[in-house]
Amino acid sequence: MPTRVLTGITTSGTPHLGNYAGAIRPAIAASLKPDTESFYFLADYHSLIKITDPARIQRSTLEIAATWLAAGLNPDKVWFYRQSDIPQIAELTWLLTCVAGKGFLNRAHAYKAAVDINTAKQEDEDAGITAGLFMYPVLMAADIVLFGANKVPVGRDQVQHIEMARDFAARFNHTYGEHLVLPEAVVEESVATLPGLDGRKMSKSYDNTIPLFAGKAELKKLIAGIVTDSRLPGEPKDPDNSHLYTLYQAFSSAEKSASFRQELLSGLSWGEAKQALFETIDAEVAPMREKYEALMAKPELIEQQLQAGAEKARAIAAPLMKELRYAVGLRDLRDTAEREKKAAVKKALPVFKQYRENDGKFYFKFLNAHGDLLLQSQAFDSPKAAGECIAELKVGSITTTQVEIIGWCLVAGVSESDVVAALKELHAAAEEKH
Ligand code: TRP
Fold first, then answer.
1. How far away, in angstroms, is 48 Cα from ligand 1 center?
2. CA of 9 to the centre of ligand 1 (A)
3. 250-253: long-range contacts (C-beta < 8 A, 24 or more apart)?
4. What are the distances in angstroms from CA 297 to CA 20, 55, 302?
5. Which pLDDT score is estimated for 391?
6. Closest by Cα among 168, 103, 158 to 134
7. Burial annotation 169-204 (CB, 10 A radius, 16+ → b, else e)
8. Which CATH superfamily is domain 213-296 in?
């Protein structure tokens, strides 16, 4: 089974260099790994929690989709879709809501932080807090488990959400049987967290970002504004305490970084250093920028891509949702008995088991659906001879004479009719499959 990797991108802003180096670039590289199925989606439902300006959500969705495509995501190889195009996500959110512990949600970091702010201001705990913010982790859990994701690459701040998703999925399974895969968070320590213009982590909330697809001139201007210390040209700089150097490293090879480091130590001026940084970043970004601009000019192409992605995603979501609806009791009133019969057949069938003993000979036994031994074979010289006997039993009906001929032994306490019934059961299951 390939590993399913899934991550969501909230459509609440314009992608910046930090998003690119920290999430987009590694995600696209990971999507090329063998034995991996990648699910990347635009979390537009999540954006409604923070943003009430519809035009901004639409704009951000367009920009983020264009960014991922321009950065080289191959939509034929991955599942790339928009959350709100998958109605099963909203549907599953409700099923999970009904097993999610409210106390657990009370302890979610984002919600608690909002409550703490209210408390500090001596306001009502929940002043201005929507149920959307409170339920955020449940929606996120639905995103994840609907696609049976094994791994969810996230930043540290999101680890608690993955733990909650695991908890809700486990509670669901405990109540309704094993249906959901429990996801695991993957925190990539080696992935760059980029500093922003002021040296704090590059983040929209600090207003210190460099947009990934700023035009060349703007990119240059923004880089010129990066805060540095006041060392003069010719004075040695300290690369380990320079945001500029951190940014440089994220966009160049180890060798290039090492020689840049040397130059800083030998007194390169900040002006020259900024020029070098601009050139390094622009070398990586320029080819993508061109694609990005072409895509932004044709929203219909991106929409088409997302529609195709959604269809591909729904092909996975719909069957699981159907199974879950049935599991909880949201059922077609007519098909209960039949489905139950099918489910029972699926659960357990009689089996033949072949094995080799210490005497070097080959044997097999026949067990019923409960695992009780019905028949024990004689010794065979080869696995092929044993297999032929099994095949014969599977197609024909068993009679006493046959049993004698091929050397079966009825196990004590088992009647021949038990064996016949088990064989019939196997037969019926095989027929049903065809
Ligand atoms: N909450 C995530 C963030 O802010 C975005 C997100 C939504 C997500 N659904 C997800 C991430 C599912 C991983 C898996 O970054």
1. 13
2. 6
3. 250/17, 250/21, 250/192, 250/194, 251/21, 251/280, 251/281, 251/283, 251/284, 252/280
4. 21, 17, 10
5. 84
6. 103
7. bebbbeebeebbbbbebeeeeeebebbbbebeebbe
8. Tyrosyl-Transfer RNA Synthetase (1.10.240.10)
| Environment class of 318 (CB within 10 Å of its CB; exposed 0-12, middle 13-18, buried 19+) | middle
Residues in the chain: 434
- If one residue of 4, 7, 80 were mutated to test the ligand 1 pocket, choosing by the most ligand atoms within 8 A of its CB, it would be 7
**What pLDDT is attached to residue 401?**
46
Instruction: Please state the φ and ψ torsions of residue 364, each to the nearest 5 degrees.
Output: -150, 160
Cα of 248 vs centre of ligand 1, distance in Å, is 28
Q: Structurally, what CATH architecture does the domain formed by 347-429 represent?
A: 2-Layer Sandwich (3.30)
The ranges assigned to domains in the chain are 3-192+298-325, 213-296, 347-429
Rounded to whole angstroms, the Cα distance separating 296 from 306 reads: 14
Return averaged pLDDT per consecutive 10 residues of the chain, 434 residues in all: 94 95 93 95 97 97 98 96 98 98 96 96 96 98 98 91 97 96 89 88 92 96 94 94 94 95 96 96 97 97 98 98 96 78 71 89 89 87 87 70 60 81 84 70
Q: Which two tokens stand for residue 93?
A: 């959110």
**Structural tokens at position 36:** 């991996």
Homologous superfamily (CATH) of 3-192+298-325 is HUPs (3.40.50.620)
CA atoms of 190 and 200, how far apart (whole Å) = 18
Ligand 1 atom nearest to 9, measured from its CA: 5
Cβ contacts of 427 within 8 Å, gap of 6 or more: 394
- Per-residue tokens: 355: 């094995």
Kindly report the pTM of this predicted structure.
0.78
10 Å CB burial of residue 43 (0-12, 13-18, 19+) is: buried
Tokens of 365: 């036994």
The amino acid that residue 220 corresponds to is K
d(CA 160, CA 169): 14
Encoded tokens for 176:
């309704």
